[in-house]
Amino acid sequence: MAGAAAADPVRTATLEAFADTIIPGAKRFPEDRAIAGVVDDPGAVEAGALELLAHSALGLAKALDGMAGLLNMHAQNSARAKQLVLDPTVPPFVALDFDARTALVQELTDPSHPEREVWFGVALFCTMAFDSAPHLSTVDALEQGHPGLSILGFHHPDEDRSWRFPHFSYQRQLATVHPQTTTTGNPA
Amino acid sequence: MTSIEQTDVVIVGSGFGGAIPAYHLAAGGARVVVLERGPWLANDEFDHDFLLGSSYTRIFDFTVGDGMSVLAGNCVGGGSVVYFATMPRAPRFVFERTGSLGRRMWPATINRDTLDPWYDVVTDALPVTEQSWNDVPFAGGLFAAACTHAGRTANPVPSAIDKPRCTNCNWMMAGCRFDAKRSLLLNYLPAALAHGAQIRPLHEVQRLSRTAEGGYRIHYDVVDDEDYRLTRGGGVIEAKIVVLAAGAGATPVILQRSEAELGTMPAAVGRYFSGNGERLNTAVVNDDRARELLGLDRGHGTAYEAHQIGKGPCVATWDKLDASLPEYSRYSLEQLYFPPGLGTVLAQAPGATGPTWFGREKKEMLRQWRSWLTVFAMTEDDNEGVFGAPPTRGNAERIAQQMLGRGSLRYDPTENTLRGWAESDADVRDILERDGLARVRPWTNDQVGAYTVHPLSSCRIGDDPATSALDDRHELRNHPGIFVTDGSAVPGALTVNPALTIAALAERAIPGLVRATQQRGVSVTYGAPSPDGTTTAVPPPRSV
């Protein structure tokens, strides 16, 4: 997991802004710039997107500085093309508003974009941080009230950390089976 | 002079295509060594956990290709450990398919009637059992009721699940810790071990070469047990017979890499790959409409909201498995569960006005995750997948320590395949959006291309040497003594879950495989009784 804590603040803010574009969240504090704050509950950043991206098991940690730099270059180019002047006190991608960030991510993940695999990969891990929290043990994540698993409504396990659903079926026939079903219950 | 290990038969891979020959050949008296690239886990190591490094990432591989990504097992027991154990037989018309060849794809010796006895053998051995409506989880029940509402039929699908043991936890892709899923760890593999077969996990076969005596050298690397990008040395074994069963995403790659030493491969090695025509749609169900239209009630006023509960796909509609329909317009639709992570990122938010697979509207869709219903279409694709040059080792350049890699498969869907997907998508919409029951969209193919959990046909059987790599006994053309018995041998998409067909074909191949082994001077007989489903799992050695 090395890397997240010691990361350069420009990289952190840039990747947080990317993660927030994938699954948006509420601002953590009033002057939060990385999170655009377009919704009122936590998103990918608070779910742990940066911890996951820097996780040693993924093999991306060394590439994150470069990715943040590339993302800021794209943001700068995009702003220049639109003749926008970006706030110089934050990284260019962070300076974009949520809709501009979204438009840029759409462009970068378009099937025709040469870097599509890179940006989809980052987006995949941001989504996973939110909806399955693979940087945490799932039981621990649930016990900590992980925001993504909570929003999904992922059920809690039994005391032995296993899931069981004893009440699982309507227990009635809800369709007529195909008339040519064989005696073994198979398609003819 | 020789210190190279010798055996009678080396089997590469331990899924259905490997475990079945391993059992029969060992029971018949041959010396059998099974080399499996993935780890060997006992049932208490099958975690209910998405944590990186838990069984979920240790035993599964997601290989991204160009236009097609493949999910496959990577462990002792192969696909049987990670799959959903849905085990229908392929419909009769499948064996008469012509695809784009203009002639029958399957060998003349195989049709539903000739394969049924082999289906019976596997059905008894695993065993595969029918499901009653009492076994069907809420998601399957909802799909069945929606089919009824739309004037369709729907069937509970036979499965290799010991229903009384099943907790409906839906963690099947991480392996079954309750031994409810009748994986190969509970039947063929322990039976093979009991007859002296050896199983060596974390042994990744890279290539084959020939011995002076007409046998084969199998060259392998030993894979690190945590970081699969690393190897820990390697070795060579010599065998008289080789059975390749590394899966349709890996078997042709081993043969491609062997071509320099073995000589020209049949043209169909690494071609004609099929993704089983697979396609996914995710619906968000309106709970009120489910109650009003379908009369569903789980108690406490909830009609559904049960996406997480169950045991994978349990109910399918087979109305379009109709031989009178034109090829590429026949498919089954099956209710399915995919866990979060891999099962959510490609789902598109129905009705989204902005981006569909990420962003604000996707988050709103995730908020309704308990109301998701995923529907799996298995259509007839056009065998359009082709493998490019093999990677340095294995079948992918591994990106992460486990699970994620980049492979060389290219898949550019033809108009036929696209039409089948479009027709099945429209059918899913017709069933689920009727009267406002749900809103549905297919998963996006824009990011990782199409995807399959049932890779097939990359080294297939057939009668025509130009379009099939194997003869109808599964022997590699022009390379006697190499057999292929996994999903790559299946000629084309099956319109249903393929595991039972792969297993039945492997059983059917055994008599010929035994004869070939005998002809190479090995004392081996055919006729061992099938594992009867009462064998006990043999735990893996704790230190490998």
Please name the defining characteristics of this protein.
heterodimer, A: 188 residues, mainly alpha, 45% helix, elongated, B: 544 residues, alpha/beta, FAD/NAD(P)-binding domain, seven-stranded mixed beta sheet
Topology:
The complex is a heterodimer of chains A (188) and B (544).
Chain A: H1 9-22, H2 44-47, H3 49-53, H4 64-81, H5 92-95, H6 98-108, H7 116-131, H8 138-143, H9 147-152
Helix pairs in contact in A: 1-4, 1-6
Chain B: E1 5-12, H1 16-27, E2 32-35, H2 55-58, E3 60-66, E4 68-73, H3 79-82, H4 112-125, H5 138-149, E5 155-156, H6 188-194, E6 198-200, E7 203-210, E8 216-223, E9 231-244, H7 251-262, E10 278-285, H8 287-294, E11 315-317, E12 332-336, H9 360-367, E13 372-378, E14 385-387, E15 397-398, E16 404-411, H10 415-432, E17 438-442, E18 450-452, E19 482-484, H11 499-519
Parallel strand pairs in B: 1-2, 1-9, 2-6, 3-16, 4-18, 9-19
Antiparallel strand pairs in B: 3-4, 5-11, 7-8, 8-9, 10-13, 10-17, 11-12, 12-13, 14-16, 15-16
Structural notes for this entry:
Chain A has 188 residues and is mainly alpha-helical. Chain A has one domain (9-152). Helices cover 45% and strands 0% of the residues of chain A. The longest helix of chain A has 18 residues, at 64-81. Chain B is built from eleven helices and 19 strands. Chain B is α/β, with parallel strands linked by helices. Chain B has one domain (5-519): FAD/NAD(P)-binding domain. Chain B has helices spanning 16-27, 55-58, 79-82, 112-125, 138-149, 188-194, 251-262, 287-294, 360-367, 415-432, 499-519; strands at residues 5-12, 32-35, 60-66, 68-73, 155-156, 198-200, 203-210, 216-223, 231-244, 278-285, 315-317, 332-336, 372-378, 385-387, 397-398, 404-411, 438-442, 450-452, 482-484. Helix content of chain B is 22%, strand content 20%. Chain B is globular.
